[in-house]
Write a structure and sequence with these properties.
Helix content is about 55%, strand content about 15%. It has helices at about 5-55, 80-90, 105-115; strands at about 65-70, 95-100, 120-125. A three-stranded parallel β-sheet has the order 1-2-3, with no helix packed on it. α3 (about 105-115) links the parallel β2 (about 95-100) and β3 (about 120-125).
Amino acid sequence: MDVVGPLFAALEFVMREAALFAAVGFLFLGLSDLAVDLIWLGLAARRRAGRRAAAGEIPTARAPGRLAIFVPAWDEAAVIGPMLNAAFAAWGEGDYRIYLGLYPDDPATLAAVQGIDDPRLRRVIGRNGIM
């Protein structure tokens, strides 16, 4: 009784079907990647064509809008004042606001920022302290 021949034939059939399944899967996955690439190329071409049409116009700079800077300050009494003054000097009169997070159980940091009077600085004091 020859069992090896039919066993190898069945194994060959299973391997052929698995290879066909994998090939179809790779085909579908490749087509979806190709579709994404073609959409991107189409959008890039549309953007490029829009830029060429408006090449004669002078572009105007858009204002970036208000910028919010969040600074948490716990036990920063020695450095918070100079840091804020340096930030205001470096950034000038830009459209920004610094939100300084303070804690009620840190009186030294609270006292250090009391003398800084700038409309771009907002002191946010939490209800509960850290410790």
